[in-house]
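hey so u asked for the seq, here:
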Amino acid sequence: MGAFSISSDGKLAITASETSSKSDFDYLIGNWSIDEGEFFGREVVADKDVIVKFHWDKRDLEAPIYSRAFSADAGRTWEWNWYSNFSRR
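ran it, structure tokens below
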């Protein structure tokens, strides 16, 4: 289950709750720019506080991509570590 709110500058704040385990992040902040969305939060990975970026790319509506990256240096560099490629059946 999740919820969202929209700030006065158009940013979305998304919260997620999982029934099976505690979520690693409290909320994600970001927005959509036509066909792409970027949302940012924080997680602890290997005892390090990192920024996490979730990216939605729906430029190709037949094959959208959802991906995730971590940054341990305040967003200067990103380690892309997960991609979900969707397709219609």
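Strands lie at 2-6, 12-16, 28-33, 36-45, 48-57, 65-71, 79-85. The radius of gyration is 14 Å.
lmk if thats what u needed
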